[in-house]
Amino acid sequence: MGIGPRDNYHYFSQFQFVKALLNFDPNYAVSDENTEPNEVEEEPPSRKEFNWNHVIIQVLESQDDKEMSVKRLCKKVVNEYLSSLLEGAHVDEVKATAKFQKKLYKTPGVFVHKDKAKLKATDEKVEATD
Fold first, then answer.
1. Domain residues for 105?
2. What total number of domains does the chain contain?
């Protein structure tokens, strides 16, 4: 009957509005019909999984007697872990140390006794000594 505020505008329901937002493509150029959507050439840096077992064994192998205190091994491995993180990623050193402790006891080929971590001898070395 009368002219109300809804007569002049198209109102979306909440569902229609969310659906329109999800289908929105910011790379699509609307102004020219002959242009193609803008392509983004930069790829986000890929996050590479940190191999705790490999680093722990590598640090122990670097020692002459293949043995190191757990505290010193922890410092070296955690520093390696923190340096491998992407820039902008913040991990608490206490959480990284706790994760190291968990991974250390699960690492195959590493024996931990009291405060020392030692690399177990492989089968080839045992056969060579017999």
1. 52-129
2. 1
CATH number of the domain encompassing residue 65: 1.10.10
CB atoms within 10 A of CB 57: 17
Q: CA–CA distance from 10 to each of 4, 13, 53, 120 (Å)? A: 12, 10, 60, 74
Does residue 91 lie in a domain region? Answer: yes
Q: Which of 57, 106, 50 is nearest to 80 (CA)?
A: 50
Mean per-residue pLDDT pooled into runs of 10, the chain (130 residues): 56 64 63 54 65 95 94 95 84 93 94 93 52
- Nearest by Cα to 80 from 56, 46, 107: 56
